[in-house]
Design goal:
Helix content: over 70%
Oligomer: single chain
Radius of gyration: 64 Å
Low-confidence stretches: none
Number of strands: 0
Number of helices: 1
Mean pLDDT: 87
Distance between the termini: 213 Å
Length: 156
């Protein structure tokens, strides 16, 4: 049977909020939506955010460890460099002292050799002088004898 416009539906008093069967149904739908969003969206998103945070923390920790290791190695290398500098400076100083000692020895040897050569030349000159003097004395004596002989011969 068709309902006419003039017929009225069962009436109950109308209020601003009607709490009938739709309210519990809307509450169940809301809870299902929250559960579905939690399972589908929030948990994976939260997991991704936590994974990213863990990744960042891990990288930051590794970076700090690498930085500490690099600083330690830099300090160690600086110390080794300082030690090496001291060693090469000592080596250079020793080499300079050795070179100076060798130069002094060579200078002393050269001076001694020069002195020996001077003495040798002086001896040779003295010998030549002595020989020349003897030769001159012999010539003087010979000439003296000749002069004497001529004088004696001319006086007779």
């Amino acid at each position: 049977m068709p309902i006419s416009v003039t017929e009225q539906l069962p009436s109950h008093p109308k209020t601003m909020f009607d709490f009938d069967a739709t309210l519990p149904l809307m509450a169940v739908q809301f809870l299902l939506l929250v559960a579905l969003l939690n399972a589908v969206f929030y948990k994976p998103l939260t997991k991704a955010i936590e994974d990213r945070s863990d990744y960042i923390r891990t990288n930051e920790t590794e970076a700090r460890e690498r930085l500490a290791k690099a600083e330690h190695l830099a300090a160690q290398y600086e110390q080794e460099l300082a030690t090496s500098r001291k060693q090469y400076q000592q080596t250079i100083a020793i080499a300079q002292q050795d070179a100076q000692a060798i130069a002094d020895q060579q200078i002393a040897a050269a001076q001694q050799e020069a002195q020996q050569q001077r003495e040798q030349v002086q001896r040779e000159l003295d010998e030549q002088k002595q020989a020349a003097m003897q030769s001159l004395e012999q010539q003087v004596e010979s000439l003296s004898h000749q002069i004497l002989d001529k004088l004696l011969v001319s006086s007779y």
